[in-house]
Amino acid sequence: GPYNEMYRPQIHFSPAEHWMNDPNGLVYYDGEYHLFYQYYPEKSVWGPMHWGHAVSRDLMHWEHLPIALAPDSLGYIFSGSAVVDWENTSGLGTKENPPLLAFFTYHNPDAEQAKKTTVESQALAYSTDRGRTWTKYAGNPILPNPGDARDFRDPKVFWHKASSRWIVSLACGDEIRFYASPDCKSWTYLSSFGRDRGGHGGVWECPDLFQLPVAGTDETKWVLIVNINPGGPAGGSATQYFVGDFDGKTFTSPQRETLWMDHGADNYAGVTWSEAPDGRRILIGWMNNWLYAGDKPCVTWSGAMTLPRELGLVPGPDGKGYLLTSTPVRELDGLRGETVMLKGLQVDGTLDLTKRIPFVRSALDLRLTFDLAAAKGSLATRYGVRLSNSKGEHIDIGYDRNRQAFYIDRTHAGSKALPVKEFAAVHTAPFVVKGQTVDWRLVIDRASVEFFAAGGRVSMTDVFYPSELFRTVELFTEKGSIHADGEVTQLQSVWN
Ligand code: FRU
Protein backbone atom coordinates (compact mmCIF):
# COMPACT_ATOMS: atom_id res chain seq x y z
CA GLY A 1 0.00 0.00 0.00
CA PRO A 2 1.06 3.65 -0.03
CA TYR A 3 4.00 4.46 2.24
CA ASN A 4 5.11 0.81 2.27
CA GLU A 5 7.09 0.75 -0.95
CA MET A 6 10.71 -0.31 -0.60
CA TYR A 7 12.31 3.14 -0.71
CA ARG A 8 9.39 5.08 0.77
CA PRO A 9 10.57 7.39 3.57
CA GLN A 10 8.90 6.74 6.92
CA ILE A 11 9.69 9.97 8.77
CA HIS A 12 9.86 12.36 5.83
CA PHE A 13 7.14 14.03 3.84
CA SER A 14 6.43 12.58 0.41
CA PRO A 15 3.27 12.86 -1.70
CA ALA A 16 0.88 9.90 -1.63
CA GLU A 17 1.47 9.53 -5.35
CA HIS A 18 3.21 11.13 -8.32
CA TRP A 19 5.80 13.83 -8.81
CA MET A 20 6.92 16.41 -6.26
CA ASN A 21 9.77 18.90 -6.27
CA ASP A 22 10.31 22.18 -4.36
CA PRO A 23 8.61 23.11 -1.07
CA ASN A 24 6.40 26.17 -1.61
CA GLY A 25 4.24 28.58 0.38
CA LEU A 26 5.74 27.71 3.77
CA VAL A 27 3.70 29.58 6.37
CA TYR A 28 2.56 28.92 9.93
CA TYR A 29 -0.93 30.07 10.80
CA ASP A 30 -3.44 29.21 13.52
CA GLY A 31 -1.50 26.22 14.85
CA GLU A 32 -0.71 24.73 11.46
CA TYR A 33 2.46 24.55 9.40
CA HIS A 34 1.49 24.70 5.75
CA LEU A 35 3.59 22.86 3.21
CA PHE A 36 2.75 23.43 -0.42
CA TYR A 37 4.92 21.82 -3.04
CA GLN A 38 5.62 21.65 -6.76
CA TYR A 39 3.35 18.85 -7.86
CA TYR A 40 2.38 17.04 -11.04
CA PRO A 41 -0.69 14.98 -10.14
CA GLU A 42 -0.82 12.90 -13.35
CA LYS A 43 2.52 11.11 -13.35
CA SER A 44 5.68 10.44 -11.38
CA VAL A 45 7.71 12.68 -13.66
CA TRP A 46 7.90 16.49 -13.85
CA GLY A 47 5.00 18.05 -15.79
CA PRO A 48 2.65 21.08 -15.71
CA MET A 49 3.18 22.28 -12.16
CA HIS A 50 0.49 22.61 -9.49
CA TRP A 51 0.83 23.44 -5.80
CA GLY A 52 0.13 20.31 -3.76
CA HIS A 53 -0.76 20.95 -0.13
CA ALA A 54 -0.34 19.40 3.31
CA VAL A 55 -0.56 20.68 6.89
CA SER A 56 1.05 19.64 10.15
CA ARG A 57 0.90 20.69 13.78
CA ASP A 58 4.30 19.19 14.66
CA LEU A 59 6.29 19.34 11.38
CA MET A 60 6.38 15.53 11.40
CA HIS A 61 2.85 14.18 10.86
CA TRP A 62 1.29 15.59 7.70
CA GLU A 63 -2.30 15.65 6.56
CA HIS A 64 -2.75 15.73 2.79
CA LEU A 65 -5.12 18.42 1.52
CA PRO A 66 -6.51 19.00 -1.98
CA ILE A 67 -4.36 20.69 -4.63
CA ALA A 68 -4.26 24.41 -3.83
CA LEU A 69 -3.33 25.95 -7.19
CA ALA A 70 -3.62 24.52 -10.69
CA PRO A 71 -2.30 25.83 -14.04
CA ASP A 72 -4.48 28.20 -16.09
CA SER A 73 -4.20 30.25 -19.28
CA LEU A 74 -1.33 32.30 -17.78
CA GLY A 75 0.80 29.21 -17.23
CA TYR A 76 2.06 26.55 -14.86
CA ILE A 77 2.29 27.32 -11.14
CA PHE A 78 5.99 27.46 -10.25
CA SER A 79 7.60 27.92 -6.85
CA GLY A 80 6.92 30.69 -4.34
CA SER A 81 6.01 31.62 -0.80
CA ALA A 82 3.15 32.59 1.52
CA VAL A 83 2.59 35.13 4.29
CA VAL A 84 -0.10 36.15 6.75
CA ASP A 85 -1.31 39.67 5.88
CA TRP A 86 -2.09 40.58 9.51
CA GLU A 87 -2.99 44.21 8.78
CA ASN A 88 -4.95 43.33 5.65
CA THR A 89 -2.71 45.63 3.59
CA SER A 90 -3.91 43.79 0.49
CA GLY A 91 -7.59 44.36 1.27
CA LEU A 92 -8.18 40.73 0.31
CA GLY A 93 -9.44 39.78 3.77
CA THR A 94 -10.27 41.72 6.93
CA LYS A 95 -8.23 42.64 10.00
CA GLU A 96 -10.39 40.25 12.01
CA ASN A 97 -9.75 37.47 9.52
CA PRO A 98 -6.41 38.29 7.88
CA PRO A 99 -5.89 36.71 4.49
CA LEU A 100 -3.14 34.24 3.72
CA LEU A 101 -1.34 35.43 0.61
CA ALA A 102 0.50 33.09 -1.72
CA PHE A 103 3.05 34.33 -4.25
CA PHE A 104 3.99 32.10 -7.14
CA THR A 105 5.55 32.25 -10.59
CA TYR A 106 3.49 31.77 -13.71
CA HIS A 107 5.60 29.86 -16.20
CA ASN A 108 4.00 30.16 -19.61
CA PRO A 109 4.67 27.13 -21.84
CA ASP A 110 3.46 28.90 -25.02
CA ALA A 111 5.87 31.80 -24.50
CA GLU A 112 8.56 29.22 -23.80
CA GLN A 113 7.80 27.38 -27.08
CA ALA A 114 7.93 30.68 -28.93
CA LYS A 115 11.34 31.31 -27.31
CA LYS A 116 10.19 34.60 -25.79
CA THR A 117 12.04 36.05 -22.80
CA THR A 118 8.77 36.91 -21.05
CA VAL A 119 8.04 33.32 -20.00
CA GLU A 120 7.87 33.98 -16.26
CA SER A 121 5.95 36.52 -14.16
CA GLN A 122 4.83 36.75 -10.53
CA ALA A 123 1.28 36.26 -9.31
CA LEU A 124 -0.82 36.34 -6.16
CA ALA A 125 -3.52 34.11 -4.68
CA TYR A 126 -5.33 34.45 -1.36
CA SER A 127 -7.25 32.41 1.17
CA THR A 128 -9.58 33.50 3.96
CA ASP A 129 -10.37 29.98 5.22
CA ARG A 130 -7.10 28.88 6.85
CA GLY A 131 -5.58 27.95 3.52
CA ARG A 132 -8.26 25.45 2.59
CA THR A 133 -9.31 27.17 -0.65
CA TRP A 134 -7.41 29.67 -2.76
CA THR A 135 -8.55 32.39 -5.14
CA LYS A 136 -6.21 33.78 -7.78
CA TYR A 137 -6.05 37.57 -7.66
CA ALA A 138 -7.89 39.17 -10.59
CA GLY A 139 -5.05 41.61 -11.32
CA ASN A 140 -2.41 38.94 -12.05
CA PRO A 141 0.38 39.08 -12.90
CA ILE A 142 1.36 41.46 -10.10
CA LEU A 143 4.94 41.61 -11.31
CA PRO A 144 5.29 41.16 -15.07
CA ASN A 145 8.52 39.99 -16.61
CA PRO A 146 10.87 42.98 -17.07
CA GLY A 147 11.80 41.61 -20.49
CA ASP A 148 15.49 41.00 -19.78
CA ALA A 149 15.21 37.82 -17.75
CA ARG A 150 14.18 34.47 -19.18
CA ASP A 151 14.51 33.08 -15.64
CA PHE A 152 12.51 35.31 -13.32
CA ARG A 153 10.95 33.30 -10.56
CA ASP A 154 10.41 31.90 -7.07
CA PRO A 155 9.13 34.97 -5.13
CA LYS A 156 9.86 34.87 -1.38
CA VAL A 157 7.99 37.61 0.46
CA PHE A 158 8.42 38.94 4.00
CA TRP A 159 7.26 41.95 6.00
CA HIS A 160 10.14 44.36 6.60
CA LYS A 161 9.37 45.97 9.96
CA ALA A 162 11.85 48.86 9.79
CA SER A 163 10.41 50.25 6.54
CA SER A 164 6.83 48.98 7.10
CA ARG A 165 6.48 47.31 3.75
CA TRP A 166 6.67 43.99 2.00
CA ILE A 167 9.90 42.87 0.34
CA VAL A 168 10.20 40.15 -2.27
CA SER A 169 13.38 38.33 -3.25
CA LEU A 170 13.31 36.98 -6.80
CA ALA A 171 15.72 34.77 -8.71
CA CYS A 172 16.69 36.40 -12.03
CA GLY A 173 19.16 34.44 -14.11
CA ASP A 174 22.14 34.32 -11.80
CA GLU A 175 21.31 37.23 -9.54
CA ILE A 176 18.68 38.09 -6.93
CA ARG A 177 16.42 41.12 -7.37
CA PHE A 178 14.53 42.81 -4.56
CA TYR A 179 11.23 44.67 -4.92
CA ALA A 180 9.04 46.43 -2.33
CA SER A 181 5.29 46.84 -1.94
CA PRO A 182 2.84 48.49 0.48
CA ASP A 183 -0.01 46.09 -0.37
CA CYS A 184 1.48 42.97 -2.01
CA LYS A 185 -0.16 44.00 -5.28
CA SER A 186 2.03 46.77 -6.73
CA TRP A 187 5.78 46.28 -6.60
CA THR A 188 8.74 48.64 -7.10
CA TYR A 189 12.23 47.51 -8.06
CA LEU A 190 14.83 48.13 -5.32
CA SER A 191 18.16 46.49 -6.10
CA SER A 192 20.05 43.45 -7.36
CA PHE A 193 22.58 41.23 -5.64
CA GLY A 194 25.05 38.59 -6.57
CA ARG A 195 26.74 39.04 -9.94
CA ASP A 196 30.10 39.42 -8.18
CA ARG A 197 29.45 37.01 -5.32
CA GLY A 198 29.08 33.29 -4.76
CA GLY A 199 28.79 30.36 -7.13
CA HIS A 200 27.68 30.95 -10.72
CA GLY A 201 27.89 27.47 -12.18
CA GLY A 202 24.15 27.49 -12.86
CA VAL A 203 20.87 29.35 -12.63
CA TRP A 204 19.96 30.94 -9.30
CA GLU A 205 16.61 29.77 -7.93
CA CYS A 206 14.46 29.88 -4.80
CA PRO A 207 15.99 32.71 -2.72
CA ASP A 208 15.11 33.52 0.89
CA LEU A 209 16.17 36.55 2.96
CA PHE A 210 15.81 36.64 6.75
CA GLN A 211 17.49 37.75 9.96
CA LEU A 212 19.25 35.51 12.47
CA PRO A 213 20.95 36.25 15.77
CA VAL A 214 24.61 35.24 15.94
CA ALA A 215 24.93 32.70 18.76
CA GLY A 216 26.95 33.91 21.73
CA THR A 217 26.90 37.57 20.61
CA ASP A 218 24.48 40.53 20.58
CA GLU A 219 24.71 40.67 16.82
CA THR A 220 21.96 40.00 14.30
CA LYS A 221 22.77 39.45 10.63
CA TRP A 222 20.79 39.00 7.44
CA VAL A 223 21.11 35.69 5.63
CA LEU A 224 20.34 35.33 1.93
CA ILE A 225 19.75 31.78 0.79
CA VAL A 226 20.27 31.15 -2.91
CA ASN A 227 19.65 27.80 -4.51
CA ILE A 228 21.69 27.08 -7.62
CA ASN A 229 21.38 24.48 -10.36
CA PRO A 230 23.76 23.13 -11.52
CA GLY A 231 27.06 24.12 -9.93
CA GLY A 232 26.73 22.57 -6.46
CA PRO A 233 29.70 21.11 -4.55
CA ALA A 234 28.42 17.54 -4.96
CA GLY A 235 27.40 18.10 -8.59
CA GLY A 236 24.07 19.43 -9.83
CA SER A 237 21.73 21.26 -7.44
CA ALA A 238 22.72 22.83 -4.12
CA THR A 239 22.05 25.65 -1.69
CA GLN A 240 24.49 28.49 -1.10
CA TYR A 241 24.10 31.33 1.36
CA PHE A 242 25.40 34.82 2.01
CA VAL A 243 25.64 36.58 5.36
CA GLY A 244 25.40 40.35 5.34
CA ASP A 245 23.16 43.35 5.89
CA PHE A 246 19.88 44.54 4.44
CA ASP A 247 18.88 48.19 4.84
CA GLY A 248 15.39 47.84 3.41
CA LYS A 249 16.66 48.43 -0.09
CA THR A 250 19.97 46.70 -0.72
CA PHE A 251 21.57 43.49 0.49
CA THR A 252 25.34 43.71 0.92
CA SER A 253 27.82 41.03 1.95
CA PRO A 254 31.58 41.26 2.35
CA GLN A 255 31.75 37.48 1.99
CA ARG A 256 34.24 36.35 -0.66
CA GLU A 257 34.05 32.58 -0.53
CA THR A 258 31.07 30.53 -1.60
CA LEU A 259 29.36 28.98 1.41
CA TRP A 260 27.16 25.90 1.04
CA MET A 261 24.36 25.07 3.44
CA ASP A 262 24.66 21.33 2.78
CA HIS A 263 27.53 19.46 1.13
CA GLY A 264 25.53 16.38 0.18
CA ALA A 265 23.86 15.89 -3.18
CA ASP A 266 20.24 15.81 -2.06
CA ASN A 267 19.05 18.98 -0.42
CA TYR A 268 17.66 21.47 -2.91
CA ALA A 269 15.25 24.39 -3.20
CA GLY A 270 15.21 24.77 0.59
CA VAL A 271 13.44 27.84 1.99
CA THR A 272 12.04 28.75 5.40
CA TRP A 273 8.65 29.11 7.05
CA SER A 274 7.10 32.54 7.53
CA GLU A 275 5.62 33.18 10.95
CA ALA A 276 7.20 30.19 12.70
CA PRO A 277 6.51 30.67 16.44
CA ASP A 278 9.19 31.80 18.93
CA GLY A 279 11.33 33.40 16.24
CA ARG A 280 12.44 30.02 14.97
CA ARG A 281 13.86 29.85 11.47
CA ILE A 282 12.88 26.49 10.03
CA LEU A 283 13.95 25.29 6.59
CA ILE A 284 12.80 22.34 4.53
CA GLY A 285 14.34 21.22 1.24
CA TRP A 286 13.58 18.82 -1.57
CA MET A 287 15.68 15.70 -0.89
CA ASN A 288 16.74 15.35 -4.49
CA ASN A 289 18.94 16.69 -7.26
CA TRP A 290 18.02 17.75 -10.78
CA LEU A 291 20.99 15.68 -12.01
CA TYR A 292 18.94 12.52 -11.66
CA ALA A 293 15.57 13.49 -10.20
CA GLY A 294 13.79 12.19 -13.29
CA ASP A 295 15.56 8.83 -13.23
CA LYS A 296 14.71 7.65 -9.74
CA PRO A 297 13.50 4.10 -9.28
CA CYS A 298 10.18 5.06 -7.70
CA VAL A 299 7.19 4.16 -9.80
CA THR A 300 4.14 5.31 -7.86
CA TRP A 301 5.61 8.47 -6.40
CA SER A 302 8.71 10.61 -6.82
CA GLY A 303 10.39 12.94 -4.38
CA ALA A 304 10.54 13.51 -0.63
CA MET A 305 11.37 16.51 1.53
CA THR A 306 14.33 16.69 3.92
CA LEU A 307 13.62 16.79 7.62
CA PRO A 308 12.63 20.28 8.70
CA ARG A 309 15.77 21.91 10.10
CA GLU A 310 16.27 24.75 12.50
CA LEU A 311 18.81 27.27 11.24
CA GLY A 312 21.24 29.26 13.33
CA LEU A 313 24.27 31.49 12.83
CA VAL A 314 27.62 31.15 14.58
CA PRO A 315 30.92 33.01 14.19
CA GLY A 316 33.10 31.40 11.51
CA PRO A 317 36.44 29.62 12.01
CA ASP A 318 38.97 31.79 13.91
CA GLY A 319 36.21 34.33 14.48
CA LYS A 320 36.17 35.30 10.79
CA GLY A 321 32.81 35.60 9.08
CA TYR A 322 29.80 33.47 9.95
CA LEU A 323 28.53 29.96 9.46
CA LEU A 324 24.95 28.84 9.07
CA THR A 325 24.10 25.85 11.26
CA SER A 326 21.37 23.28 10.60
CA THR A 327 19.89 20.81 13.05
CA PRO A 328 16.79 18.64 12.82
CA VAL A 329 13.88 20.40 14.53
CA ARG A 330 13.28 19.26 18.11
CA GLU A 331 9.86 17.93 17.05
CA LEU A 332 11.76 14.92 15.67
CA ASP A 333 12.11 13.79 19.30
CA GLY A 334 8.35 13.22 19.31
CA LEU A 335 8.96 10.14 17.14
CA ARG A 336 11.38 8.56 19.58
CA GLY A 337 10.81 4.91 20.41
CA GLU A 338 13.44 2.72 22.07
CA THR A 339 16.95 3.97 22.77
CA VAL A 340 20.15 1.96 23.11
CA MET A 341 23.18 3.52 24.75
CA LEU A 342 26.52 3.03 23.01
CA LYS A 343 29.22 3.53 25.62
CA GLY A 344 32.99 3.34 25.41
CA LEU A 345 33.24 2.12 21.83
CA GLN A 346 36.83 1.38 20.82
CA VAL A 347 37.08 0.79 17.10
CA ASP A 348 40.12 -0.56 15.29
CA GLY A 349 38.96 -1.88 11.94
CA THR A 350 35.22 -2.48 12.12
CA LEU A 351 32.74 -2.71 14.96
CA ASP A 352 29.34 -4.14 14.06
CA LEU A 353 26.58 -2.49 16.13
CA THR A 354 23.68 -4.22 14.41
CA LYS A 355 23.01 -6.86 17.08
CA ARG A 356 22.77 -4.16 19.73
CA ILE A 357 20.01 -2.40 17.78
CA PRO A 358 16.85 -4.55 17.94
CA PHE A 359 14.93 -1.87 16.01
CA VAL A 360 17.46 -1.62 13.19
CA ARG A 361 14.68 -1.94 10.60
CA SER A 362 13.15 1.36 11.76
CA ALA A 363 14.29 4.84 10.93
CA LEU A 364 17.25 5.64 13.21
CA ASP A 365 18.62 8.67 15.01
CA LEU A 366 22.29 7.86 15.70
CA ARG A 367 24.32 10.23 17.84
CA LEU A 368 28.03 9.76 18.39
CA THR A 369 30.68 11.77 20.15
CA PHE A 370 34.12 10.88 18.90
CA ASP A 371 36.85 11.49 21.45
CA LEU A 372 40.08 11.99 19.54
CA ALA A 373 42.25 11.92 22.67
CA ALA A 374 40.80 8.65 23.96
CA ALA A 375 41.70 6.52 20.94
CA LYS A 376 44.03 3.62 21.85
CA GLY A 377 47.25 3.67 19.86
CA SER A 378 47.43 5.85 16.82
CA LEU A 379 44.41 7.83 15.76
CA ALA A 380 42.72 6.52 12.61
CA THR A 381 43.27 8.48 9.40
CA ARG A 382 39.63 7.89 8.45
CA TYR A 383 36.72 6.84 10.60
CA GLY A 384 32.97 6.79 10.51
CA VAL A 385 29.75 4.87 10.04
CA ARG A 386 29.06 2.26 7.37
CA LEU A 387 25.55 1.14 6.41
CA SER A 388 25.44 -2.05 4.36
CA ASN A 389 23.41 -5.03 3.14
CA SER A 390 24.08 -8.68 2.37
CA LYS A 391 24.75 -7.89 -1.31
CA GLY A 392 28.01 -6.14 -0.53
CA GLU A 393 26.52 -2.70 -1.13
CA HIS A 394 27.29 0.04 1.38
CA ILE A 395 27.44 3.75 2.05
CA ASP A 396 30.15 5.33 4.25
CA ILE A 397 29.73 8.51 6.25
CA GLY A 398 33.15 9.48 7.50
CA TYR A 399 35.82 11.97 8.43
CA ASP A 400 39.11 12.00 6.55
CA ARG A 401 41.86 13.51 8.73
CA ASN A 402 44.34 13.86 5.87
CA ARG A 403 41.89 15.75 3.70
CA GLN A 404 40.32 17.47 6.70
CA ALA A 405 36.88 16.79 5.38
CA PHE A 406 33.71 14.95 6.24
CA TYR A 407 32.52 12.76 3.40
CA ILE A 408 29.76 10.51 2.21
CA ASP A 409 30.91 7.79 -0.16
CA ARG A 410 28.02 6.29 -2.11
CA THR A 411 30.11 4.79 -4.91
CA HIS A 412 29.10 1.31 -3.72
CA ALA A 413 25.59 2.11 -2.57
CA GLY A 414 23.93 0.09 -5.30
CA SER A 415 23.26 2.75 -7.86
CA LYS A 416 22.36 0.18 -10.53
CA ALA A 417 18.76 1.19 -10.02
CA LEU A 418 19.79 4.70 -11.00
CA PRO A 419 21.92 4.61 -14.11
CA VAL A 420 23.30 8.13 -13.83
CA LYS A 421 27.09 8.19 -13.69
CA GLU A 422 27.26 11.19 -11.38
CA PHE A 423 25.22 9.33 -8.75
CA ALA A 424 28.06 7.03 -7.67
CA ALA A 425 30.36 9.61 -6.10
CA VAL A 426 32.10 10.77 -2.94
CA HIS A 427 30.74 14.03 -1.52
CA THR A 428 32.97 16.05 0.78
CA ALA A 429 32.51 18.83 3.30
CA PRO A 430 35.87 20.46 4.13
CA PHE A 431 36.04 21.09 7.86
CA VAL A 432 38.90 21.43 10.33
CA VAL A 433 37.98 19.60 13.53
CA LYS A 434 39.30 21.55 16.49
CA GLY A 435 39.34 20.33 20.04
CA GLN A 436 39.21 16.88 21.49
CA THR A 437 35.68 15.77 20.71
CA VAL A 438 33.34 16.09 17.78
CA ASP A 439 29.60 15.41 17.77
CA TRP A 440 27.92 13.50 14.95
CA ARG A 441 24.28 12.89 14.27
CA LEU A 442 22.86 10.70 11.52
CA VAL A 443 19.20 10.38 10.73
CA ILE A 444 18.66 7.32 8.55
CA ASP A 445 15.35 6.61 6.87
CA ARG A 446 15.47 3.58 4.51
CA ALA A 447 17.03 5.28 1.49
CA SER A 448 18.39 8.54 2.86
CA VAL A 449 20.90 9.79 5.38
CA GLU A 450 21.03 13.27 6.86
CA PHE A 451 24.32 13.90 8.54
CA PHE A 452 25.00 16.75 10.98
CA ALA A 453 28.30 17.37 12.77
CA ALA A 454 30.06 19.93 14.95
CA GLY A 455 26.94 21.59 16.29
CA GLY A 456 25.28 21.68 12.88
CA ARG A 457 28.19 23.49 11.22
CA VAL A 458 28.37 20.60 8.79
CA SER A 459 25.39 19.04 7.10
CA MET A 460 25.27 16.50 4.30
CA THR A 461 22.16 14.92 2.84
CA ASP A 462 22.31 11.95 0.48
CA VAL A 463 19.84 9.44 -0.88
CA PHE A 464 20.72 5.93 -2.09
CA TYR A 465 18.98 3.01 -3.79
CA PRO A 466 20.51 -0.28 -2.70
CA SER A 467 19.09 -3.47 -4.19
CA GLU A 468 18.22 -4.50 -0.60
CA LEU A 469 17.79 -1.94 2.21
CA PHE A 470 20.79 -1.34 4.48
CA ARG A 471 20.19 -3.10 7.80
CA THR A 472 23.76 -3.42 9.02
CA VAL A 473 25.30 -0.56 11.02
CA GLU A 474 29.04 -0.55 11.65
CA LEU A 475 31.70 1.83 12.83
CA PHE A 476 34.93 1.68 10.85
CA THR A 477 38.44 3.06 11.04
CA GLU A 478 41.40 3.07 8.69
CA LYS A 479 45.03 2.96 9.84
CA GLY A 480 44.43 3.30 13.54
CA SER A 481 41.64 3.47 16.07
CA ILE A 482 38.99 5.77 17.45
CA HIS A 483 36.91 6.08 20.60
CA ALA A 484 33.23 7.01 20.66
CA ASP A 485 30.24 7.25 22.97
CA GLY A 486 26.72 7.62 21.77
CA GLU A 487 23.18 6.42 21.53
CA VAL A 488 20.84 5.21 18.86
CA THR A 489 17.12 5.86 18.94
CA GLN A 490 14.29 4.29 17.02
CA LEU A 491 12.15 6.80 15.13
CA GLN A 492 8.57 5.74 14.64
CA SER A 493 6.99 5.99 11.23
CA VAL A 494 4.67 8.93 10.71
CA TRP A 495 2.87 7.07 7.92
CA ASN A 496 2.45 3.48 9.10
C1 FRU B 1 13.69 24.65 -8.57
C2 FRU B 1 12.76 25.05 -9.69
C3 FRU B 1 12.23 26.44 -9.48
C4 FRU B 1 10.95 26.44 -10.27
C5 FRU B 1 10.46 25.02 -10.03
C6 FRU B 1 9.71 24.42 -11.19
O1 FRU B 1 13.81 23.29 -8.38
O2 FRU B 1 13.42 24.92 -10.94
O3 FRU B 1 13.13 27.47 -9.88
O4 FRU B 1 10.05 27.41 -9.83
O5 FRU B 1 11.58 24.24 -9.74
O6 FRU B 1 9.13 23.21 -10.85
Low-confidence stretches: none
| Class from secondary-structure proportions | mainly beta
Q: Span from first to last CA?
A: 10 Å
Integer-rounded radius of gyration = 22 Å
**Major β-sheet profile:** 6 strands, antiparallel
Mean pLDDT: 96
Beta strands, count: 34
How much helix, percentage-wise, in residues?
under 10%
Shape field: globular
The fraction of residues assigned to DSSP E strands is: over 45%
| Ligand kinds | beta-D-fructofuranose
Q: How many helices in DSSP terms?
A: 1
SSE diagram, text form:
Elements: E1 18-29, E2 32-40, E3 50-56, E4 63-69, E5 76-84, E6 100-107, H1 109-113, E7 120-127, E8 135-136, E9 152-160, E10 165-172, E11 175-181, E12 188-193, E13 203-213, E14 220-229, E15 238-246, E16 251-252, E17 259-260, E18 268-272, E19 282-286, E20 301-302, E21 309-315, E22 322-328, E23 336-347, E24 350-352, E25 363-371, E26 382-388, E27 394-400, E28 405-409, E29 426-430, E30 437-444, E31 448-453, E32 458-463, E33 472-478, E34 482-491
Parallel strand pairs: 1-20
Antiparallel strand pairs: 1-2, 2-3, 3-4, 5-6, 6-7, 7-8, 9-10, 10-11, 11-12, 13-14, 14-15, 15-16, 15-17, 18-19, 19-21, 21-22, 23-34, 24-33, 25-30, 25-34, 26-27, 26-33, 27-28, 28-29, 30-31, 31-32
